[in-house]
Give the backbone structure.
Amino acid sequence: MGIIEIINRNEWAIRSHIITYGNAADTATTEMIRDEIETMWNEPGGIISFNDELIKISFKITATCDPYLQPETVYENDNPINNYFRIETFAKGHISFVDGLGCNTGYMKLDNLYKGSTTAAHEYGHTLGLKHPADTDYRGKGIPGIMYPRGTLVDAQYQYNPDAKAGENGGTMNPVYRKVKPEDIAMLKPSRLVMNSATLIVGDFSSVWHDEEKPMV
């Protein structure tokens, strides 16, 4: 989720602020997430269409780690720039996730967040309203886009194991190869005006506080 800053008629910036909490959240991981999102989403220099105008889009991402964050802060937040993510070493299903398409909350598994993983950039796309593509067989099409999920079939050089048979162990997309493409940004849709101002929002409030998930014993 984020707000749009109108730089001029044909140039906008999407501003989002990432706030991390949880036992595995720290300043270094939070900065890595921030940098991955901002770098990857700015890389293609994307354009959206709005009211029959072509608008160049850039991304300005800030982030803080808040180990003392309280549930009430998340529930009562009315600032559309804020996105809250719990980070823990364990997650049910062993995956990171957000709370729907166009949201401002989620849960990250720490070992998904290594440098270059593209997990943070992928989940950020969901917060802006983007979904997984319906067809997850991307063979013959080159580098996969950022919104392709784990398990996508890709050309051999983009698999975990280039020698594995497609769909078998090691024969699916290694997410480190995902890229934000111009067509990803072109799908973004500013959703509404806020309080009759000129502020446009991308995404919406989910405002979910996540407790720590723990293994079954």
